Amino acid sequence: MRFLERERTVVEEVLPGLDQRLAGLPLADLEAVDSPGVRLFRDAGGPGLLVPAEHGGRGADLLTALRVQRAIGSRSPSLAVATTMHHFSVASLVEAAATGGGMEWLLLAAIAKDDLLLASGFAEGRTGQGILHPSLTARTEGDKVFLSGSKKPCSLARSMNLLTASLPLPGPDGKDRLAIALIPAEAPGLSVRPFWGSPILAGAESDEVVLDDVEVPAELLVRTDVTADGRLDQLQTVGFVWFEGLMTAGYLGAASALVERTLGNPHADSAVAAEAVACVESVALALEGLAADVATAGVTQDTLSRSLICRYAAQDAINRVLSLCVEALGGMAFIGSGDIAYLNSACRALAFHPPSRTRMAAPLAEYFSGRAPLRIP
């Protein structure tokens, strides 16, 4: 089987026509601020990929989704990043629908039927700020909840139908607990401002979303048991596993695009090309092992720890691939097209997504030594 053939075959099976349409466009167009990638993803039914079949979606499992994201990342890193943010929000809703008694299933059905896109307003991207610490402030007025603040960067800011955001709400013991709100993009008080100044990953639509006393509909508020110490309940654990796995797969796809170019270059050294293939395929196998764990044992703290290990190992493997492929492709390939330099830069952004390796060093060491439950600081 040819390199990336399996992943692209899966995309054709679940999102017919998407890979072919992406392949027909220059990388520079797909990565631009006005990229058509999100529209093509929506037109192919991508928003419903993870929605269970009984709610009108494609019902993709983690293994399928990982292969889809790798294939998409090989065509457009920006689209892989943007859609990962959507998918992890949907995966969390699926978990909430499976274990809760709310109306989450109606929202899932609407996502699949109307191809709704979810943007994520969690606290990533803030230096020194833990991902579980909300970036928005909430006020309550009886049973009503209002949000203010901003999220920057926020992928899919211009194409989203709903914004998912974290907020603190008092629990039964008076201590604040994390809640997840879903806010319609057209809600009064919600606006979008330009923020992303880099040409790298500009197609992910990562601008600033501003909320000015925006009311959260009661039926679109999901409460969790997560407190400020960062311990995770099942809903959050599921979301993190999907986030880390899918984001890693997307950047693996971007690195795979460089490997594909190296394999297709008759002047590239065969030993270098083979080593580059080994690097990316080893990460793919680790991710597939993660998906197998989820399929057989469900999602646990152990699964989350494995997803983080996959992600950090992928960062190292991708850095090795970049070094191998950029040199093997040579100066003329670098000069003749902006694609090589672009992919080299885009792949490195995996390290910027939360939680960083540095922040997780102590929690992972404590977890694997048996001293403490896994925390996300």
TrEMBL record:
> Which EC number applies?
1.-.-.-
Membrane-spanning parts? none
- The answer to keyword Flavoprotein applying to this record is yes
Q: Which GO terms describe its molecular function?
A: oxidoreductase activity
Q: Which UniProt keywords apply?
A: FAD, Flavoprotein, Oxidoreductase
What top-tier enzyme class does this entry carry?
A: oxidoreductase
- This chain belongs to which protein, by name? Acyl-CoA dehydrogenase family protein
The record lists the organism as Streptomyces roseolus
**Lineage of producing organism:** Bacteria, Bacillati, Actinomycetota, Actinomycetes, Kitasatosporales
